[in-house]
Amino acid sequence: MSAAEDMMELHWLFDMLQHIDVGLVVLNEKYEIKLWNSFMENHSGVSSSIAKERSMFDVFPSINSEWLQHKLDNVIALRTPIFVSWEQRPHLFPFNSYRPITGMAEKMYQNVALRPITSADGTVKFVCMVVYDVTDVATNKESLSNANRKLDYLSKTDPLTELHNRGSLDGTLQSTFERYKREGGKHSLVMTDIDFFKKVNDQYGHPAGDLVLKTIAKILGGSIRKTDFVGRYGGEEFAILLPNTDAAGALFFCETVRKKIAETKIKLPNMDISVTMSFGISEVKKTDQSKSEWLSRSDEALYKAKEGGRNQSVVSSAT
Fold first, then answer.
1. In a domain, 151, yes or no
2. Active-site annotation holder among 29, 236, 263, 283
3. Is 263 a known active-site residue?
4. How far is residue 126's CA from residue 149's CA, in Å, rounded to a whole number?
5. Which of 47-61, 95-109, 231-245 has the lowest mean pLDDT?
6. d(CA 3, CA 292)
7. Where does the chain cross the membrane (predicted)?
């Protein structure tokens, strides 16, 4: 190959390095910039003439210098490349996303490859940083993850009250029951419903009934501990699971909530109304063969509370 052809090939190579759609940076052992291609110029706003011969950390003081220096040193010492995914670190360089209208990210997501450069004498004194713009991939994956989380939330949530739904209750109750069979402990289940709820719908209309359900749900949700569970079982009936709580503790909880609900004024467009609730409580027993038997005892206690005059809490007497 002639010298002219060698020069032409070198020119082509240099032109490709400058205009390739990835960032290329070459650093020496002192982290000084030796190569800064047009991708880096365009996205950083820092020209090659300004960047070259300066420390990377002077040009980008926001970069975690200790973290990056450790990786660069390892690349040189071990003569092996290191890859940093956007999932580990969304970006190394704080570049703005150049798709602000159609994109979902303010900053460019980046994959970064750190590769050793071997000199003619076999030593490694330089590292090439290859910066890939993966914003589209990252935002699409995050959108899918967000959509899946939303679907999972919706599948477990009652749309009116925003409490857990019946399916979520069944799963949580089953796992609690299985844990009890393995480890023992004291766990209580409360079934509760709104007294004379049909009269609320008949007298004031279904929008008023929905408002009552939302108000009750807010009170119940705001009364439990983080480890507790409350869900809408169906219609005007709710379930409350109180782990690590015996029947006496559950009764105290129910009485506190019952009184709070009875004292609450629910504001309708033309008036305020009040409702009461009845509570049935059962503590899981060794004789329970399934979660259904445990739930049935809570249901029976709720039935006794309603038969006994409503607006009261009853503990299951079954053993």
1. no
2. 236
3. no
4. 44
5. 95-109
6. 87
7. none
Which pLDDT band, with edges at 50, 70 and 90, does 102 fall under?
very low
- 60 exposure class (CB count in 10 Å sphere: 0-12, 13-18, 19+): middle
63-82: per-residue pLDDT in tens? 999 999 999 999 999 999 99
Q: What is the largest CA-CA distance in the chain?
A: 106
Q: What's the one-letter identity of residue 188?
A: S
3-class secondary structure, 32: strand
H helices, E strands: number in the chain = 11, 12
CATH number at residue 289: 3.30.70.270
**149 falls within a domain:** no
Is residue 272 classed as helix, strand or coil in its secondary structure? strand
Least confident of 35-44, 96-105, 108-117, 299-308: 96-105
Last residue of a domain, one of 94, 110, 142: 142
Considering the entire predicted model, what is its pTM? 0.59
Identity at 8, one-letter amino acid code? M
Mean of the pLDDT values across residues 147-176?
84
- Site of tokens 């004292």: 263
